[in-house]
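FAQ: What does the model actually see?

It sees only this:
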Amino acid sequence: MRSATARFMLLSSMTHLKGKRILLTRTAEQNKSTAQLVESMGAIPILFPCIHIDYFSTNIQQTIKDLQAGEIKNTDIIFSSSNGVKAVVSCVNNLKESLQGFRIIAVGRKTAQTLIEHGCPPEIIPEKASQQGLIIAYQQQKPPQQAYFFRAEEGSDDLLLALKQQGVDTHLIPSYRASCSNDDATPISTQLSNKRIDAVLLGSAKTAAFYMRRIANLNFANTPVIAVMSPQVEKAADKLGLKVQVIANKPSFSAMLQGLDDYFATQDKG
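And it is asked to produce this:
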């Protein structure tokens, strides 16, 4: 873990973000922590939640009952996102006790960190934070007999298909739905049209789509510098007509902000 001194040196070195107005498009809850990070770097966060998360409590609670009544040995519990972890946490008294004895799998380090915070350190984290990365990880070891996959209502079925081909009894548990926020976007659209926002952070393909839907004007949406979490998000943004200038070198908001700082440093040099 990075020391406090090293973290301070990193943040204080990002002088090119000072005073920049940065649009945050995560959920209202997630925007709070991201805003603190943005402020610590001298920038000004502008909160614009584009995603609303609804948990499927009935699905989750029934699955937890089934798990606790079934065979624990050789059963994997797979989480593909932090939202999936939080969805299950919202339905149980204690995640660690509810999943005691099962092998826990996280599709990426961000998801792994959320699991660790709730007392469930994952045993497998693929090098590449994706379902394809997890497919490769499973190919390198003996597969489980059963796998329960907690994920969003919509998503790729590649992992499930790959596990089925290995003879694994798979169970997909839709745990939450990500929908577009519907509060009034006029104040943000006005700031964009007046070039009062310097940059926007897009952490997922879904966020990019909802950002575009909420602004409903491609020229306005492309006014700020657009920073994205990964090449996959950049590809999705490009299909929407969004012009991405910054792609994080690793999937984190800190990396996105570092990329923005590098971008503005280049711009400041002329």
